Each structure stands twice: as C-alpha cells, then as structure tokens.
Amino acid sequence: MLNVGVIGAGLLGARHARVYAELAGCRLAGVYDVDHARAAAVASRHGARAFASPGEMLRAGVDAVAVATPDHVHHDPVMACLDGGAHVFVEKPLALDPAEARAMVDRAAERRRILMVNYSQRWLPESRRIEDLVTSGRLGEIAFIESHRWDAAWVPERMIAAWADRTTPIHFMSSHDIDLILSWTGRRVRTVYATARRGALSRGDTVDGYNALLTLDGGVRVGLHSSWILPETFPSAADSRFELLGSEGAVFLDGNRREMAVFTSRHSERVTFGGPRTADEVGGRLAGAFVESARAFLSAVGADDHAAPTSAANTLHVVEVQAAIVASAAQGVELRLGLAPDRA
Question: Model-level pTM?
C-alpha cells in the first residue's frame, strides 16, 4: 500500500487527490498547497491530512508525491521530493527550462527514484489506435503531421490568470501532442521554425499562440498550431485536431468529437471512440486516460521501473523542443537541435 501525497490543490491537484483516494494499492496520505485552506478543502473530501509544508509531508513518510503546481514552478517541489526519498509523478510540462528538466532527471537518477511525467493522452484509445497504425507500417513512411490545439480565452484570462504570462500555449496545451508525435514516430526533432502572436488577449504580456514547423529525423515535417483565444461562445474549454499523412495512408482525428477517419492503400474506415476520455466519472469513480496514467506511475514505482515510457528521462526531448519553439519565435530564425553528448 503506497502512501501518496499531492502538492498543489488546484484543478489538477484536486483530480490527483481523488484518483489516489480511489485507486487500489495506494492511499491518499495528504495534500499541500500554498493556500492552506484550499489544501484542507481537498484533503477533507477524502479523509486525508492537509500539510503545512512539503517538508512536513515528506517527514510523515509518503512513498510518492504528485506535483501539480503551475507550469513554471515544478523544479523546486520535484527536487525537494526526490531529496526527501519520494518517487514523483509531475504534471506536464516537466519544466519550461531544459536546464531545470535535466537537473530533475539527473537528481532522480542519483536518488534512484522514479520520476514520471503525466502524459495522460497516451492512454486514450484513439492515441493507441494511431500508435498502432504508425508502428505497424500501415501508413507507410510518415511524411506530414499536423497538430492543432485551441483553448478558450477564458482559460488564460480567468482560469490561470495569475500565471498565464509565465507559461505558453505550447507548454500548457501542446505538451501532449509533442509527446505523442515523438512517441508514435520514435524520432527526434532536428530543426524548428516558429512564429508567435500577441494582441488578441486583454493582457498583452500573454502570448496568443504559436505556429511552428518542425523537421524530424528522416525528413518528417510537423506543423503545430497552439492558441488560446477562442471566444466565449465556443462550446468547450478546448479542442484539437490531428492529421498524419504517410506514403501508404492517412489518419484524421477530430479531438472533441473523437471521430477518426483512416485511409490506407487497402481500405478506409471511420471510427467514433466512446467510453471515458480523460477523467470522467463512471459509477461514482473517475475513469479514463488520466487515471490510467496515474496507475502506470504506481505500477512503475511498484516494479522499480526507471525506464517507463513517460519517465522524465525518456520524455526530456519534449522540453527541449518546446524551448526551441519559443526561442525560434523570439529570434525569428530557424533553430537546429543537436544531440546532447551523453545521448549521441
């Protein structure tokens, strides 16, 4: 029975807390947040304890900690938990700064602790279907991939208004898509050219969005669009589209509708995916990709599996790509990403 703590009691932190309170094989040991009243409210729902500090939580003997703080403040709590002997499941993005991300990966290796990133979208059935189509070769050689992520303007302007200017849509929204693309293809990004825009949001210091063109190993071209300026009349907080075109077939996925069209040299089909998506309530419990991602973390801890697919070490390149997108847009030039010496 693993004792799991949660740092951060916002929307995602509260979801983490509920998941560990409901999953078999673990118990929610407690919650910490800079807003103690918020931590106490989340903890009380599940009969857990609200801690006054991360240190107090670690001294209480937690085995693992989920870090669900804002995007730009993952480094310090992750490092503190690793130093305190806990395994860590951190929300995406691992970090905004690649140097911080590498430091966390190195510290996890030094302390022999599991450090995994919550790339939950890998567990969606539609993501698994695309993975199978790509890795089986039924699409042939992948040539083009398009990813579109949109959020409503109320997300940066109200939901995360306190720190929206310290993250970007590429980090807050497109982390999942970049991770999926790298995972599906098994390739690394070699060049990045990106542009950014400001002015649609009420706060001019918050970027509206990015367009980026990536070149992967073997010449695969990836187009990324990520913006959060949809109007109030848009019926949901977010939406997405995926397109993959290969030498032998193509896939088109409508995110919110969960509708996929597949065309290969031998057949075509249209599929609508059902069941729980990311974190839907089923029979009084949360179910979906988020829950399966958390379950995979607990399994990795139980098996002492430091090479889990979404480990921080295995997904470090996502952070490098995101940083290159932001830097390219700021500098107005194409950037080339090289291999780190120890990964050459």
Answer: 0.96
